[in-house]
Amino acid sequence: MSIKDLARRAVRALTPYQSARRIGGQGNVWLNANEAPLAYPFIIDPARLNRYPECQPPAVIAAYAAYAGVADEQVLVSRGADEAIELLIRTFCEAGQDQILICPPTYGMYAISAETCGVGIVEVPLTAARQPDWPEIKSRLSDVKLVFLCSPNNPTGDLVGREGLNELLEAASDRALIVVDEAYIEFCPEASVVDLLARFPNLVVTRTLSKAFALAGIRCGFTLAAGEVIALLSKVIAPYPIPDPVAQIAAEALSAKGLTLMQERVRELNAQKARLKAELAALPCVTEIFEDKGNFVLVRFDDGARVFAAMKEAGIILRDFSSKPGLNDSVRITVGYRGEMDAVVNVLRDIR
């Protein structure tokens, strides 16, 4: 027997999520992880670094509740939205018995977290219009505990249709939780579904400071849900999930000044995104530009592998999604500032 044989079967068979950093790459323009292009300074008070942090820092909870427009008891802060996904699965799904439902192509951590926890996965692919297949999802509600929907969807950029979501929430009442991942919602805040929390206790919304707040490095995410859901998740979360420096930075980012900076950043990136799309539309190597509601644009090329290789040679690191269902020859481009977008377009113009 080897040490590997001692591990759970599910772990031995698991292929880990291929994050941007795990994949790696050589280059000087990093546009593969949907990160903000610049870091911003924060001041940390070290006075309490010798003490264990609060499990749920009150200042962070209050600030995010005010920002999201919900009550404090409807907020849980975690180590990124990734921990929130796993917490939901660990809290509501019995290993070896229950299942979650996902709508590929979508964010990969829903499936990875389920597999890690020994929970089954039901796949209902997006429709040709890249919307959830609402009738099929509703027909599978008796089989699943959690339905994960990403809006804007990573990697396609599409929003979940509100009418279909409303009908699904009604159908899933007392049967399943519907989780809407709003990691990119700051880039289209009018599309948030947080207001539906007041009507549907089976709705859960996950959020993050990684994208529009430019804080991917501190790993800080949020779950917004009915107080009963938050109370259950609080039983499962680690006793000290948020380090004190993270809490300090998060509170500063959620201050009036921090929110203003975030909104300015979003306006700038949305402007660069519109400019990039206009440039892409004029290029002969581009065959399709997908929806653009996040801080990225998914593009289908006539030869995606050739484009990806040309970018790599130029030191520009993008994310290849051509192996995902329905996304052949598709490459995702994180929206950066003007110089980075110009570098991408210049390479594409030279492709014949």
Automatic annotation (TrEMBL):
Q: Which UniProt keywords apply?
A: Amino-acid biosynthesis, Aminotransferase, Histidine biosynthesis, Pyridoxal phosphate, Transferase
Q: Which GO terms describe its biological process?
A: L-histidine biosynthetic process
Keyword DNA damage listed = no
Domain of life according to the entry: Bacteria
Identify which cofactors the protein needs according to its UniProt entry. Answer: pyridoxal 5'-phosphate
The UniProt GO MF terms for this protein read: histidinol-phosphate transaminase activity; pyridoxal phosphate binding
What sort of enzyme, by top EC class, is this? transferase
Residues annotated as carrying N6-(pyridoxal phosphate)lysine in the record are: K211
Q: Where is the Aminotransferase class I/classII large domain?
A: 45-347
**Where does this protein act, in terms of pathway?**
Amino-acid biosynthesis; L-histidine biosynthesis; L-histidine from 5-phospho-alpha-D-ribose 1-diphosphate: step 7/9
SUPFAM superfamilies tied to this protein: PLP-dependent transferases
**What PROSITE patterns does the annotation carry?**
AA_TRANSFER_CLASS_2
Give the E.C. number(s). 2.6.1.9
Could you tell me what reaction this enzyme catalyses?
Answer: L-histidinol phosphate + 2-oxoglutarate = 3-(imidazol-4-yl)-2-oxopropyl phosphate + L-glutamate
- InterPro entries tied to this protein: Aminotrans_II_pyridoxalP_BS (IPR001917), Aminotransferase_I/II_large (IPR004839), HisP_aminotrans (IPR005861), PyrdxlP-dep_Trfase (IPR015424), PyrdxlP-dep_Trfase_major (IPR015421), PyrdxlP-dep_Trfase_small (IPR015422)
Family of the protein in this entry: Belongs to the class-II pyridoxal-phosphate-dependent aminotransferase family. Histidinol-phosphate aminotransferase subfamily.
What HAMAP family would the database entry show?
A: HisC_aminotrans_2
Q: How does it assemble?
A: Homodimer.
Annotated protein name in UniProt:
Histidinol-phosphate aminotransferase
Its encoding gene is what? hisC
